[in-house]
TrEMBL record:
Thioredoxin domain sequence ranges: 42-147
Protein name stated in the entry: Thioredoxin
InterPro entries: Thio2_N, Thioredoxin, Thioredoxin-like_sf, Thioredoxin_CS, Thioredoxin_domain, Znf/thioredoxin_put
Pfam families: Thioredoxin, Zn_ribbon_Thio2
PANTHER family: GEO12009P1
CDD domains assigned to the protein according to its UniProt record, in alphabetical order: TRX_family (cd02947)
Cellular component annotations (GO), alphabetically ordered: cytoplasm
Organism name: Novosphingobium aureum
Gene behind the chain: trxC
Length: 151
């Protein structure tokens, strides 16, 4: 199976890399290591322990919502981001990173205001958007950024 025919998908539960045929991404799939579903239709919680696996190793773009519990607009956008995950998976992985708990990662991406969404592919920042957005705007922005990445 060639690289074009498959994608590396990082498990949202154990952070193991799984090779999945591109044609079967929409069918979901299970992790070869832990047996859990590779796609859950909801954002995963990103931490220092799993961030690099998702940001660097996977073939799927990673859309990260940098947020904090004290941030009103962050709390307001949380349901919209969760709704966007249902639409955007399996073409990209969505994750939430608490900037208070993971200050080093927030610093690595120079997060100055929250909520901020950063689209990452293979460790490289592709696009960034600050401010709360409704679900459809998140989907349109993320899909547009991925399309621009393909050019």
């Amino acid at each position: 199976m060639s690289q074009a025919e498959s994608r590396i998908v990082v498990c949202p539960h154990c952070a193991s890399s799984n090779r999945v045929p591109t044609a079967k991404l929409g069918a979901g799939g299970k992790c070869g290591r832990c047996g859990a579903a590779l796609f859950t239709g909801s954002p995963l919680t990103l931490t220092g322990a799993n961030f690099d696996a998702h940001a660097l190793k996977g073939d799927l773009p990673l859309l990260v919502d940098f947020w904090a519990s004290w941030c009103g607009p962050c709390r307001q956008m949380a349901p919209a981001f969760a709704a966007a995950a249902q639409t955007l998976e399996p073409t990209m992985r969505l994750g939430k990173l608490d900037t208070e708990a993971e200050q080093a990662i927030a610093g690595r991406y120079a997060i100055r205001s929250i909520p901020t969404m950063v689209l990452i592919h293979k460790g490289r920042e592709i696009a960034r958007q600050s401010g709360a957005m409704p679900p459809q705007a998140i989907v349109q922005w993320a899909q547009g950024a991925v399309m621009g990445m393909a050019r």
